[in-house]
Design a protein that fits this description.
Number of helices: 7
CATH topology of the largest domain: FAD/NAD(P)-binding domain
Strand content: 25-35%
Number of domains: 3
Shape: elongated
CATH superfamily of the largest domain: FAD/NAD(P)-binding domain
CATH class of the largest domain: Alpha Beta
Structural class: alpha+beta
Bound molecules: flavin-adenine dinucleotide
CATH architecture of the largest domain: 3-Layer(bba) Sandwich
Distance between the termini: 20 Å
């Protein structure tokens, strides 16, 4: 089989890369082995303009957002499905000090502050902020429907990519019965095993994620308490997440889960029912640099990785830049 571009991995990086290439008229194939602790599947998948607890705007947010909207909307059109939606984000201050830090950075273009002691029956002793320009992405739908679309119109294989089978002959990539003009690796944390990019400072961290049922809570908002609560569907919410850099296993952190639910229950007037507890790993790099680059010896081999905590916001722009470098 002949392809213009073979992509390894279909998390958010591989999904966006395949869409951008198809949009330019290229034929693509994807090899993805749908791993269990997949970052893109377990993410809260929100776009948030502010970074950390300092209330600073994410650098180059406008550019990232306009690229994201352009490409997610393009995918929506192909799939005839709503994938990205604007959502107001209510941030409940956990202390007076936290509220003061936010007040010093106040910028009504990005967020407003209220001193009210409650928001829609939710206890907020220190007031709350309403963050604008937030979006949520229906990632389950995105990955599943995109996979089906690629299977129908292009090529997708649900297997492990075996690096030793890849051969470079006459400036073409040969992988088993596939011949491709270019290859792009989007393997998330598994890139640690990629022999072509073995000198890069890949690293990872783990996060526990809870899926909870909360009858009565308005699902039109993203909420941040000590942890973040993101509506998925009806009464089902995503709750998380912690960041653990030093770890030896992917066992569930039960202690964290209990205290996370208890903290949330202290503020919510609705009973919280735990549905599922999962653990994911985030692909990142030492120094937290996103890696969107060509191989040093092969201009037709690319890598998109290290998307860290903002993969759903930043994948589009970095992928666009990578394709430009690769002259695709
Ligand atoms: C708990 C948590 C919450 C998050 N919340 C957000 C958020 O709200 N907003 C946001 O923007 N980001 C968030 N992130 C970060 C975001 O999820 C990541 O930046 C993003 O998912 C990384 O995507 P990726 O495509 O690079 O990697 P992955 O999602 O890991 O995808 C890699 C894919 O490649 C496949 N693969 C790997 N190796 C091979 C191989 N050899 N053969 C075949 N297939 C292979 C894997 O099976 C997988 O399908 C969160 C992450 C976590 C863990």
């Amino acid at each position: 089989m002949k392809l213009d571009v073979l992509i390894v991995g279909q998390g958010i990086a591989g999904t966006i890369a395949s869409y951008q290439l198809i949009n330019k008229g290229y034929t693509v194939g994807i090899i993805d082995n749908a791993k269990q602790h997949l970052s893109s599947q377990l993410a809260s998948a929100i776009i948030n303009p502010l970074s950390g607890k300092k209330w600073n705007q994410v650098a180059q947010f406008d550019k990232f957002l306009s690229d994201s909207l352009l490409y997610y909307k393009g995918i929506e059109k192909i799939l005839n499905q709503s994938i990205i939606k604007p959502k107001n984000h209510i941030y409940f201050f956990q202390s007076k000090e936290e509220q003061l830090v936010a007040k010093q950075q106040i910028n009504p273009e990005w967020f407003t502050i209220s001193e009210e002691k409650a928001f829609k029956n939710i206890n907020s002793p220190y007031g709350f902020a309403q963050i604008k320009h937030c979006y949520s992405i229906a990632q389950d739908l995105l990955f599943e429907k995109w996979k089906q679309y690629i299977a129908q119109h292009y090529y997708i294989e649900n297997t492990l990519f075996e690096y030793q089978e890849l051969k470079h002959i006459n400036n073409q990539w040969h992988y088993k019965d596939i011949q491709s003009n270019a290859i792009i690796f989007c393997e998330g944390i598994n890139a640690i095993n990629n022999p072509y990019f073995k000198d890069l400072p890949f690293t990872k961290n783990r996060g526990d994620v809870l899926y909870v049922n909360i009858a009565g809570l308005d699902n039109n908002y993203i909420y941040s308490f000590k942890e973040r609560l993101v509506p998925i569907k009806n009464q089902l919410f995503w709750l998380g997440s912690n960041h653990t850099w030093e770890y030896t296993d992917l066992l569930k952190n039960e202690e964290w889960a209990i205290s996370c639910i208890q903290d949330l229950q202290d503020q919510l007037p609705y009973p919280i029912q735990l549905i599922e507890h999962k653990v994911a790993e985030r692909p990142t790099s030492i120094g937290q640099q996103i890696m969107a680059m060509q191989h040093k010896d092969y201009s037709n081999m690319g890598l998109l990785n290290g998307l860290g905590t903002r993969g759903f916001l930043q994948a589009s722009t970095h992928c666009k830049d990578l394709l430009a470098k690769m002259q695709l």
